[in-house]
Write a structure and sequence with these properties.
3 helices; three-stranded antiparallel sheet
Length: 110
């Protein structure tokens, strides 16, 4: 099972827009578009699982809201700092940040 949440990222949205445009001009059919998006989802999941070994620490001024449903956590944080393993600041976001985290054990059942 792969999650489709990566289609909501900037890269995923750009891919969807390009595929929809290609479908509109009859360059691909809907079945091919769905297959490409499924491959995108599987590739992103596999990449995070097998090739990314870095970790970040989050520090936020406030946990705005949180939700856990169907093994998916959604966190809405305010004024967030992303710190590398050595403690150095990677990024800082003033405002709200939404984090979606899925249960990795469910994705193993693909």
């Amino acid at each position: 099972m792969s999650y489709t949440l990566y289609q909501g990222t900037r890269l995923g949205l750009a891919l969807k827009e390009a595929l929809e445009e290609m479908e509109e001009y009859d360059q691909i059919n809907p079945r091919v578009r769905r297959a490409i998006l499924q491959t995108f989802d599987n590739t992103i999941c596999d990449t995070f699982e097998n090739q990314v070994d870095n970790s970040l620490t989050l520090r936020a001024d406030r946990l705005w809201s949180f939700r856990f449903c169907d093994s998916v956590w959604q966190l809405l944080l305010k004024n967030v700092e992303f710190l590398a393993a050595n403690g150095s600041l990677v990024a800082s976001v003033n405002g709200k940040v939404k984090i979606v985290a899925c249960d990795a054990r469910k994705s193993d059942k693909r």
